[in-house]
Amino acid sequence: MTGRPPWRGALVLTGVSLLLLATLWGLAGEHGWRTDRVLWIGFGAFLALMTVVRPWWFWEHHKAKWLRDLVGDEVTALLYLALAGLMVWVGLFTGWTFGR
């Protein structure tokens, strides 16, 4: 443990996620892209990047820590990267949407 309070990491992760969401939403509207496609791809890319970089507020989050304790760091990273790849695939090749 790094000595940082757990709520601080959750707050940083929430802030970064909201900033990413707002940025992707704005770019989609500005360029005429389908918003749901951009969100799938953007969140998948974000998850992959955070898995590779492993900032403390992401990798030490209590949910990530729980999974890391359960299956280990390498398997957790592989699961996160597989989920990220699935999200990008959904954004590129399916008609799944957020909402209606």
Summarize the structure.
The chain is an all-alpha fold and 100 residues long. The protein has helices at residues 6-31, 35-53, 56-59, 62-71, 73-93.
Task: Explain what this protein looks like in three dimensions.
The chain is mostly helical. The chain contains five helices and no strands. It has helices spanning 6-31, 35-53, 56-59, 62-71, 73-93. It is globular and about 45 Å long. The chain starts with 5 loop residues before the first helix and ends in a 7-residue tail after the last helix. The model has no long low-confidence stretch (mean pLDDT 84).
**Which bin fits the share of residues in helices?**
over 70%
Report the total helices.
Answer: 5
DSSP strand tally: 0
Major sheet attributes? none
Q: What's the pLDDT, averaged over the residues?
A: 84
Using only CA atoms, what is the Rg?
15 Å
Quote the beta fraction.
under 5%
* End-to-end separation: 42 Å
Uncertain regions spanning at least 5 consecutive residues? none
Shape: globular
H/E topology pattern: HHHHH
- Please state the structural category: mainly alpha
